[in-house]
Structures are given as C-alpha cells and as structure tokens.
Amino acid sequence: MRALTLGPEGTYSHRATRAVADDIDFTESVTGIVDGVASGEYERGVVPIENSIEGSVTESLDALADRNVAVVQEIITPIRHALMAQHGEFDLVASHAQALAQCRAYLDAEYPNATMEAVASTARGVERAREDDRVAAIGHPDTAGDDLRVLAEDIQDRTSNATRFLVLAPESERSEAGGKTSLVVYPNTNYPGLLLEMLEPFADRDINLSRVESRPSGERLGDYVFHLDFAAGMYEERAKEAVAELEQLGEEGWVRVLGSYDSKTVLY
Ligand SMILES: O=C(O)C(=O)C[C@]1(C(=O)O)C=C[C@@H](O)C=C1
User: Fold this and answer.
1) Helices marked H in 76-180 — which ranges?
2) Do 106 and 65 belong to one domain?
3) Where do the ACT domain residues begin and end (predicted)?
4) What is the share, in percent, of the chain residues with pLDDT greater than 70?
5) Ligand 1 centre distance from Cα of residue 187 (Å)
6) Nearest-CA neighbor of 117 among 131, 99, 133?
7) pTM
C-alpha cells in the first residue's frame, strides 16, 4: 500500500501512517496529502485532524471540504513531546505550530526569552536543530538520533495529549461500514434556527454527534462550512435517514459524506 503523509521522516503523522502502510512518501503540506489522494497518485493519505489540547488542524479540514476523497479509518495516537537540541544554550524553538501550542505553558515557564518558529512539521524542526546549535526542536524523542540531546521529555501541557488522524483513500473506496461517519455540509443559507435544524435529524434518531466544527466558507464573512462526525455507520437506516433529512435542508448548498470508518488507537 502506497501512502503519502506529512514529512520529513519522523513526524507523528509518519508514526500514524506506519499503522496502515509500509510504502510511505512525504510532503510538507497537508493540502498536498489530500491532493495526492484525490488525484489518484496515492492509495492512502494520512492527515492530522484534531488535537486534544490545541483543537482542529484547520488546513486539513479546509482541504477535505473542497476535494473528493474518502475517509476509510481514524487513528488516534498519544502525543508525548520532547525538547531536543545540541546543548542547553539555545535562542529559538522550532516545531510545528500545533506542537508549539501544545507545549505553550512549559515553554513560557522554562524558556520565556526563547523565540518560537513554526515550521512545516516537528521533524522539520528537528532538522533545523541539527543544522544550527542555537535552535531547539520539539518532537518525538526518537527523532533526536545521535546529534541531538533530549533536554526534557513529556513537555506537553497535559499528560493526556492525543491527536486524531484520518486515513484518506480515493473516492471509489468510500464505505458505509464502520462505527463512525464524517460529513461536510455547506448550507449556503442562513436563518434563525438553521444550526438547530441541522442537528435535529441526528438527535431525533438517537445518533450521537461526536464533533461539530464550523470553518469559514471563504465566500463571504459569516458564511460557514460545517464538519460533522457522528457515531453511526451509513449502513444503518437511521444514519441514511438523518443524512437525507440534512440534504433537504441545504437545497441551496451541499452535503458531502466522506465515509464511514472504524477507529484504531496506535501506541508507539
Ligand atoms: O509535525 C508533525 O509531527 C505532525 O505529524 C503534525 C502534527 C499536527 O499537525 O498536529 C501531528 C501531531 C501533533 O499534534 C503535532 C503535529
């Protein structure tokens, strides 16, 4: 199975991808991963979607809203960050923006004068630290190798730090099987009670919504695309009915079912 994920080698996305593929290529853009699958070049793509401390990976949500791919699995993995550098004297900390944010309290307390630099991935930050002895990186401790010292481990602001990744496949592999389903909804209208009407089809059928996220549509201010996840598979009659009701609401817009899938927790 040939898969594309966020690189270079050693990212948390890479670790999650190892659970579904052994032939793994890298790109430094999440949108590029979705494109790689939508174009048919890759059989699988793995993108980070949400973190328990810092919330949505908005670039992933936006890329899923306007490209045709299927979600075929969810991977949840604990995230335990280490601070790595050539030595303890550094001026700058380089990492993925999500990782920097997940360690904000630690960095403020321990390194209040250090500059933060957001780079494309945690592994890219590690490469920066390897090249420059004034730079420290935040990432998985295994990426330190022989050149960097692990100065501190478990520096995330909460012990229960976890990230959710989605495994993407070409649209033709969209499945109705699984305990969870993801949808993207663009109502293209706005009136009092619209959000309530969007959620009622699920409440009426006892379907638990596990996530509701709004993202700007980009069309006009105050206009949104909604990402909904619910705990039922599209093979279930109640899920089919709820989605059909939702489709009627948004006659001016659209509803895209990304697929039903199961969840896997990966420890490393
Ligand atoms: O930079 C990486 O290592 C990634 O795989 C990206 C990413 C993210 O986008 O959330 C994945 C997991 C962690 O939450 C930190 C960064």
Assistant:
1) 97-102, 104-110, 122-131
2) no
3) 183-260
4) 100
5) 31
6) 99
7) 0.95
